[in-house]
Amino acid sequence: MLGVVRILSLLLVPLLLGSARGLRKVSSRTFKIDSSHNRFLKDGQPFRYISGSIHYFRVPRFYWKDRLLKMKMAGLNAIQTYVAWNFHELQPGQYEFTGDHDVEHFIQLAHDLGLLVILRPGPYICAEWDMGGLPAWLLEKKSIVLRSSDPDYLAAVDKWLGVLLPKMRPLLYQNGGPIITVQVENEYGSYYTCDYDYLRFLQERFHGHLGEDVLLFTTDGAHEKFLQCGALQGLYATVDFGAGVNITAAFLTQRQREPRGPLVNSEFYTGWLDHWGQPHSTVHVKAVASSLYDILARGASVNMYMFIGGTNFAYWNGANTPYQAQPTSYDYDAPLSEAGDLTDKYFALRDVIQQFEKVPEGPIPPSTPKFAYGKVALKKLKTVEEALSILCRSGPIQSLYPLTFIQVKQYFGFVLYRTTLPQDCSNPTPLSSPFNGIHDRAYVSVNGVPQGVLERNLVITLNITGKAGATLDLLVENMGRVNYGHSINDFKGLVSNLTLDSNILTDWKIFPLNMEDAVRSHLGTWDGHGSSYAHSPSNYTLPAFYVANFSIPTGIPDLPQDTFIQFPGWTKGQVWINGFNLGRYWPARGPQVTLFVPRHILVTSAPNTIIVLELERAPCGNGGPELCTVEFVDRPVISAAQTMVTSLKTKTKTHG
After folding, report:
1. To which H or E segment does residue 427 belong?
2. Which is catalytic among the residues 89, 128, 185, 187?
3. What are φ and ψ of residue 39, in 5° steps?
């Protein structure tokens, strides 16, 4: 027996030694700040990162590798990504980390390609993303103070970090992964709460879950007032600024907070965000390239925000105040386009980078091919009112006064509010939201006759007609929650009472609409007739679904390919292809006209199904179904002229 033990011990010694060597190899991986020389040290050697922002939640998993490889070939040695809490926990305690939500796979993929990762897990991220990444269900406690040490908020954050951060710990650089630094919160100095206890709570939890040796940092605008509330001892303070800024002055602001350590611009803006009804934002290539050169010439580390913007699929876009929603495209005028195409800006920045660092040799992955599948005719399927039994299978919620989306646990999309006219309105009678309580657009009809649209901040009164007892419907659209500033607690729906001729309307039936399940079931079967068009003096059509099937030829090599869908003659709505929610279209307001359609949602083995929800005015409303066409084209249009009202023309400057 002793002989057997001796033999086993001899066999185990090399294994144990090898294991110890492996542990030593991992533990020798370090990423630290060298304060005495104002630099980072990676494995004891001087290092600076040249990084670019990419949001895994804005790029389909199908294209993660393509986009990351293009970033690497531009000369980047790191990428930066947010983690959007609400993308992973749509319902309290129900977590999604598979498919397009698999952030661990995304980070591992970056690692496999030789890219380091700068992680920004929030919990608040801004990012022009719905509610800045915070889950809407936090608002179920109406008085909650977000981004503060409010006990209810901290309890939710604590639980979330307890789920997310343990997944990130094995991916830290010192543990063999690619994550070199982790941001705590985001631009906290721009928020009104200025709660150091909150930052200390986050600092403690991040260290508790990730270890004491993790390098934590903060990011704020390059102004002293932002750093006063955004920075905390023990968290390395960095700044953000765009092209054309006085770089010396911006970094001097960081130096006032961090006298020693590397200079870091955590968000160097390569472009800017868009809003519906405003011109598409662009930043000139030469301005970005020149500023990047100056930043790198100072030896600073930099992250370019964005390097690829991507897409706000479905309902994920955010909004700014005064209320202005962002469009579906998050192209950002970035070096890689929304569809991952190489741009002049990409090559200009690559040329700058290779003056300071070695750029990888070999071919750059080309822009993906696009295909124009042409026009597709749609048929009217059902109005929203006709589809209510499918859209709201559990039936309506009854309430004396209107309830918000949160109160009926509808976090995105649409809710239909229904009551009856308490008086005769043979003459046009004002339907009003005196406290600006339409969040965000309401499509109004009486007995199936469209009356017009009420819109947050812009149209708070609408004259309607109808007889006493007639059905009054308001289909209310959540256009995206505010993502920046003090108004991120953005409640949706009818958030205050409506009046008819100054009398408060009561006795509401409230229908939370499950669009996704209904679309997947094709809203039942089309009977071949569709519904009739009610005459409307306002020239609106009822919100309705339209459907079509189109086939992609199987005899053409390499199909399907990426494409773009446009809506000639349509006004505003939502579109799904094969059940995938592409997002909102609004060519009547612009600037975005086409929506990006990634190839992986298309099929050649069967017809592809398009379902369009047109909310305001369909092109075939009065002229017959032959005018109801959409068109697939091979070029995007995201910079068309706008027809927006004057009050929205001022660009609201916010940080991503």
Report:
1. strand 425-432
2. 187
3. -155, 170
The letter for the amino acid at 318 is G
Q: Is the pLDDT of residue 644 over 50?
A: no
The yes-or-no answer on residue 614 being catalytic is no
Structure confidence at residue 531 as a pLDDT band (50, 70, 90): low
pLDDT in tens, 213-241: 999 999 999 999 999 999 999 999 999 99
Comparing 197-201, 276-280, 620-624, the range with the smallest average pLDDT is: 620-624
Question: Which burial class, exposed, middle or buried, applies to 447 when counting CB atoms under 10 A from its CB (0-12, 13-18, 19+)?
Answer: middle
Query: Are 633 and 564 spatial neighbours (Cβ–Cβ below 8 Å)?
Result: yes
Structure tokens at 557: 């090599």
Cβ burial of 163 (10 Å; 0-12, 13-18, 19+) is middle
- Does residue 486 carry a pLDDT above 80? yes
Q: Which residues contact 424 (CB under 8 A, 6 or more apart)?
A: 467, 468
Angle at 179 between CA 236 and CA 98, to 5 degrees: 125
Q: How far apart are CA 126 and CA 133, in angstroms?
A: 7
Phi, psi of 469 (to 5 degrees): 90, -10
48, 37 Cβ separation under 8 angstroms: no
Q: Is 224 a catalytic residue?
A: no
List, for residues 421-435, the tens digit of each pLDDT value: 999 999 999 999 999
Residue whose entry in the numeric block shows the structure tokens 């630290």: 32
Q: What are phi and psi of 200, to 5 degrees?
A: -65, -40
Whether 40 has a pLDDT exceeding 50, the answer reads yes
Q: Which residue has the higher pLDDT, 416 or 534?
A: 416
Residue identified by tokens 């698999």 is 102
Entry field: residues in the chain: 656
